[in-house]
Amino acid sequence: MIIHSHFDVNEKGHLTIGGVDTVDLANEFGTPAYILDENVIRENCRTYRRAAAEYFGEDALPLYASKALCFTGIYKIAAQEGMGVDCVSGGELYTAKKAGFPAEKIYFHGNNKTDKDIRDAMDMGVGTFVVDNHEELCAISKEAKKRGITQRILLRITPGIDPHTHRAVVTGNVDSKFGNPIVTGQAMEIVKAALQTEGVHLVGLHCHIGSQIFDLEPFSDAASIMVRFIADIKRECGFEVEELNLGGGFGVRYTEYDREIDYASSIRDIASIVTGFCKENDISMPRVILEPGRSLVAAAGITLYTVGSVKEIPGFRTYVSVDGGMPDNPRYALYQSQYTAVIANKANQAKDQRVTIAGRCCESGDLLGENMELQSAERGDILAVLVTGAYNYSMASNYNRLPRPPIVMVKDGKARIAVKRETYEDITANDVL
Ligand SMILES: *Cc1c(COP(=O)(O)O)cnc(C)c1O
């Protein structure tokens, strides 16, 4: 096992994912390529579904936050596993629709839904809009009234938590482009406005405090603030919130320095905290919605590359260059995100080098990691970067006109293409002049 139990080394000394030899995968599908272990995604869905039902009750629903990894196949898996999904754009909604995902189980997010987005979502019959601001509330109301429908909505609320300072810092995330802060009074204002707006049916509140969070405290702080706010709403408006969406954010193990979170027991702990707060504040327990993204798909994925050059700059560092980079994984360039890398065809050898892994773009910042432990690399080796299932393909670009890699899914020892490799024709398809 390397970092996660579905990554292992076989008798040839090759890295495996879900029991499949990654060197064989590189030979069959080419590089760069994203590989996903389908069983891991399905198992994660089941863990969330089971834990949500057991600890929050049968009506609780986990949504897959589809921005983490979006293509038709993932919506089919989410539908089969009984998940809802959240979408944040017209493109994600379209992909969900194309996959046949049940529209009533879609929550539509985003801080700037266009009129077209709103019309398209209503055409599709999207179940719930998560309303970010007053202008949007009016635009949704107007479109709903025109159609003679009542649109189910939640309101996005900013509880004011900075998850990475581990405290409810009421100034922390109040300064956000998302949602309506409680401390400034704006949250209560939009609740009152929504209750008086025709064409919408306010069912509850949403909050999402951040991502890659390993501690329980930010979640319990957020829950306590939200429950107190729900009690305030009941007192001031006589309105009982039916649904509380607590967002996503559970952390994922990327390197051996990260802890592994037991999602089921985290959900149990959050549920007991929410239940306690509800009793304390004398409100009935709302239906709880969760929105995991990263924690459902990140660990399921790896990216395979071919090593092109190994360049040692004496006194400085060694660059290992691969046939991908920031276009397929911009996370190191954006956030210095840490990853684990393995030479897939030398996975049984010791990691005796410290290297910088560079991509192939004309840009010095095009790195996949620095100071990374790695087996000694040479041209032709297959390099695997682990835990790339989330926010890699979904953030991929065509910078330097590099085609996006395919997504290959492995399941029960077999591999199949889920998303084809882009071609140069695909990249130029919209060029008119
Ligand atoms: C990004 C996002 C999520 C998922 O966050 P993860 O950290 O990937 O679990 C859930 N809800 C909303 C509104 C988001 O923006």
Textual characterization of the structure:
The strands form three sheets. Strands 4, 14, 15, 16, 17, 18, 19, 20 and 21 form a nine-stranded mixed beta sheet that branches. An eight-stranded parallel β-barrel has the order 5-6-7-8-9-11-12-13, surrounded by five helices. It is of the alpha/beta class and 433 residues long. It has twelve helices and 21 strands. The model has no long low-confidence stretch (mean pLDDT 96). Bound molecules: pyridoxal-5'-phosphate. The site of pyridoxal-5'-phosphate has 16 residues, from helix 10.
Pick out its properties.
433 residues, alpha/beta, eight-stranded parallel barrel
Short structural description:
This protein has helices at residues 22-29, 38-56, 72-80, 90-98, 115-124, 134-147, 186-195, 217-237, 263-280, 294-297, 331-335, 424-428; strands at residues 7-9, 15-17, 20-21, 33-37, 61-65, 84-87, 106-108, 128-131, 151-158, 180-181, 200-206, 243-245, 287-290, 301-313, 317-322, 341-343, 353-358, 367-374, 382-386, 407-411, 414-419.
